[in-house]
Prior knowledge:
Elements: E1 13-21, E2 37-44, E3 51-52, H1 59-62, H2 75-93, E4 100-104, H3 113-117, E5 121-126, H4 129-137, E6 142-144, H5 149-159, E7 162-168, H6 177-187, E8 188-199, H7 201-207, E9 219-220, H8 223-231, E10 235-243, E11 249-256, H9 264-276, H10 281-307, E12 312-315, H11 319-328, E13 338-340, E14 357-359, H12 360-365, E15 370-373, H13 379-385, H14 387-391, E16 395-398, E17 404-405
Parallel strand pairs: 4-5, 4-7, 5-6, 7-8, 12-13, 12-15, 13-14, 15-16
Antiparallel strand pairs: 1-2, 2-3, 3-9, 8-11, 10-11, 16-17
Amino acid sequence: MPQCHICSNTITPFMTFGQMPIANGFLSEKNTATEYFFELEVAHCPKCNAVQLPHQPEKEKMFHTEYPFFSGTSKSMQTHFADFADSVNTEYLAKLHDPFVIEIGCNDGILIKNFLNLGYRHLGIDPSANVADVARSKGVDVITSFFDITEAARIIKSHGQADLFLAANVMCHLSNINSVVEGIQRLLKPTGILVFEEPYLGEVIETTAYDQLYDEHVFLFSAHSVKFLFEQFEMELIDIAPQPTHGGSMRYTVAHKGQHSVTQTVTQQLQKETLLGLCEPSTYKKFKESCEKSRDQLVSLLESIAKRGETVAGYAATSKSTTVLNYCGIGSSLVSYICDTTPIKHSRLSPGMHIPVRPDHEFHDDYPDYALLFAYNHKNEIFQKEKAFSKQGGRWILYVPEVITL
């Protein structure tokens, strides 16, 4: 039986999404025969309340020199991270002398570059060399590495301890989470602060956003699981704030125990999660049933469109789309291609279902009848950009929080 990544308690999966490929593993035709798959199971730990994947592929299979995700391509995310940086700077750094900021999973530097612009000492850490190189091109100080307790010791020796440790949509990737948290605990100064944000479990359950479950997302965090995790290392959750990103995220602020006051928002969120049933096994049984219903409705809709002889293109070759396409068994007979703005994905095939990925100009050159929106968390930005598609009669298909056409 698998064990919880946080507390080592024995856990039992409440559902499986079946055999899944690497979510960001967009591949060439010649590599389809050797494509890697794993069983995407999901479990809830009754001891620490962490929802997690019991089994995650090796990290080198997910994060490497051809990692195809660049955070900075979204204007809305650029604004979000600028506001994020301004908020933590105002709250924790502005009054300090010569503050030192560290970010793990810094990607193309979209967040940490704001601290560079403030003139602060900083260090970005990312295991994917290609995105780290983009951050370096912006002047960001970056090391290409996986972060853990060993890497933390090296950083302390070379740079000293940090005043602020940041992570955005990264902590949920880390199955070695205890080693990571111990490293953070040692890296932070006694009054130092950790601020991180992740897709929020409560939002996933409420909206049936099952596409948030894929190889990289080994955890879906809640206030309960975050509180338990950090208390193991004499740290405590001191603040919590909902965020609109990724279809609904949560920002967690953590500090050494007793160094900062705990806000009322933490107690309120814990109480809310109890009322929502996030600590109850029955909640996850209902979630499984909701996922199956959503899957069946989406497939039925696409099949009815195909029978009418109308066309569907996918919009945005996201990692989330991999779960949807493979769980639902949606291939190129139902979605003829996926358009995307990321050059590294062009002329490749989607993981598992092998739907062609094409440049976004092909979408504009010959509009399909329907566009299946995989980047629904950016729908406002995308709808604004693609007004011409809707104006000429194109319809959008969404599947979160329900399967609808617009």
